[in-house]
Amino acid sequence: MYSGPLVKWKWEKRLSTVRQAHEIGFTLDTPPSAAEGLDDIMEELQGGFAPAPAPQTLLENVTVQGFQTKVLEAVNQPGLSAYVAVVYFHLPSCAPCHEMLPVLRQARARVEDSARSREVILIRPIRIFVLDCSQSEAAEVCERFAQSTYPAIRGFRQGRLVGFNRPREPDVIAWWMARIARPSFFLLDTPEHWKNTKLQRVPSFLLLLADSSDQESVTLWEEIAIDNLEQCNFYLALHSQGIWKFLPGRPPSVHVSAHQDMGLDAAPFQWAPDKEVMQTWLEISLRPPVSSLGSWNSRELLRSGLPVVVLRHGQDEASVTAVATFRERVNQELRATGQYIFATLDVDTADARVLARSWFPLVGKNFEDFLPFPVTLPPEIFVFTKSRTTGEAIFWYSPEFPAAANFTLRDVEELVSRSTWFHDNSGISLAMQTLLRFDRFGARSPLHRLIWLCTPFCVAWTVGYIWRGLCHILGLGANAQKAGNGDDGSDASSKSRKARKGSKKTR
Question: CA within 20 to 30 Å of 490's CA: 19, 126, 308, 473, which one?
């Protein structure tokens, strides 16, 4: 059930029974009058704010002024707006943009059919707006919301911007639109509903309150739920009903449930009315205790904004032991602090090598690690997070950092506090990483040291050889020869002039 500051608790049971049935997948023998009167209940629940009728057209073209009034001003007003806005940013000259238009129409039609049949519950209708970014006046808006990447789909709801970063298929887009237009959370009145969330492959979070008088917690729970609508389900239950005694802890408390294949093992959390603390715990609880870092989840971990402690390893025996120790320590002691996300990076796999070369060149497996023969990199720990200025990955790495069996979170804090161990994608940092990789290469063995010493001379000889070849190709040598011939000619002419003067004197 959608619940906000205007909640009238007398309607909770009437709303939750019908809505939760659709959300979890139950089939209830609900009388037609109950389903037909749901919108009337919502109107009274929201103090007379009736849902707006769905637009007749599936896609609506808007100008920059229309975007300002129909999207930004509409979704930023207090409370719920009349609709959830989905904006499609495109260019007329972009072929993929034209291919997306029928896909959007199909997705919109499927959402409407699902809402009409009560397969999904929408808190407000969805309106899809199309903005042409080739207009000069639209350049600033498109740069701000689409980052000049076309086609781009963005959702707007209650002052929030939700980006679409999934396959551009009708079913996927329809699922995404239904997610961002659903109620922020649902009220549970039976434990069976909560137990059935273990069948879902979407993490579910339940806030258990002592009674309905804690409006501050309800409001905060709604804000957190809206910020994470795309990736989680949120529920609310009242302990006063006396049916939640099987849950651990005392209310107010937060509980997590998900399909066992997701491997989630949420860190313990006692509810505190602090949005930042709760969001941090949520980001950590969304993932397994130790994630396997790869291209499929790197952006997701980066968007969390939390520091990610990574164990770089291979597939040798020492790495297998280090990974087992790392996972055990994270489960038993490190994760309970609720400050960091933990992951492993197997640089012996092609996907991880590509990711490391682009994000963490200093800790990845590079071409020099195969010269003159492949070497095994020892298990080492580094930390990365998202830059607050550029939004790209930044990381800290020190070869002196303790091993997986010995490091502490204090060591991690010290690592990220040292500017000498900080690296990003700037030109200066990349140059420093290249020098460090070169120095690390020379310290491996006497043979590597010999190659390390010979490399500068080989590079100088190669550059000189290439330069001579370019001069020959461009004709610089011929010009020099011509210039030399000219000098010889001038000397000969001067000698002839002197000879003529001497003959005159003789006469």
Answer: 473
Within a domain: 18:
no
The span from the CA of 482 to the CA of 366, in Å, is 48
Asked if 435 contacts 352 with a C-beta cutoff of 8 angstroms, the reply is no
158 and 242 housed in the same domain: no
Q: What does the alpha-carbon distance between residue 397 and residue 428 come to, in Å, rounded to a whole number?
A: 16
Q: Side-chain half-sphere of 410: how many Cα atoms within 13 Å?
A: 1
Question: How far apart, in whole angstroms, are the C-alpha atoms of residue 90 and residue 31?
Answer: 45
**In the structure, how many helices (H) and strands (E) does the chain have?**
18, 15
Over pLDDT 90: what percentage of the chain? 25
Find, among 155, 187, 239, the residue nearest to 41 by Cα: 187
Whether 413 has a pLDDT exceeding 90, the answer reads: yes
Last residue of a domain, one of 134, 155, 183: 183
CA 336 to chain centre: 24
Residue 166 lies in a domain: yes
Decide if 124 contacts 77 (C-beta within 8 A). no
Regarding whether 340 and 310 lie in a shared domain, the answer is: yes
Q: Minimal CA–CA distance to 89: which of 131, 129, 48, 51? A: 131
Residue 208 and residue 273 in one domain: yes
d(CA 332, CA 433): 34
Contact 262, 202 (CB under 8 A): no
What residues contact residue 423 under an 8 Å CB cut-off, 6+ apart?
A: 360, 362, 394, 395, 396, 397, 429, 432, 433
Q: Lay out the sheet containing 290-292: strands in order across.
A: 290-292, 341-346, 308-313, 380-386, 393-397, 422-423
Reported residue count of the chain is 507
Distance, in Å, from the CA atom of 409 to the CA atom of 394, rounded to the nearest integer, reads 19
Given 284, 300, 329, the domain boundary residue is 284
DSSP label at residue 55 = P
CB 203, CB 258: distance < 8 Å: yes
Can you tell me whether residue 353 is helix, strand or coil? helix
Give the torsion sign (CA, 378, 382, 384, 389).
negative
**Which residues form the domain of 165?**
51-183
Q: 409 versus 52: which is more confidently predicted?
A: 409
Strands 84-90 and 126-132: parallel
> Quick one: 436 and 302 in the same domain?
yes
Tell me: cis bond preceding 372? Omega within 30 of 0 counts: yes
As given in the structure block, the two tokens for residue 470 are: 């370019």
Residues 6+ apart with CB under 8 A from 38: 15, 18
227 and 122 assigned to the same domain: no
Which tokens hold the place of 165?
A: 């970063």
pLDDT in tens, 106-151: 999 999 888 888 888 888 889 999 999 988 898 899 999 988 788 9
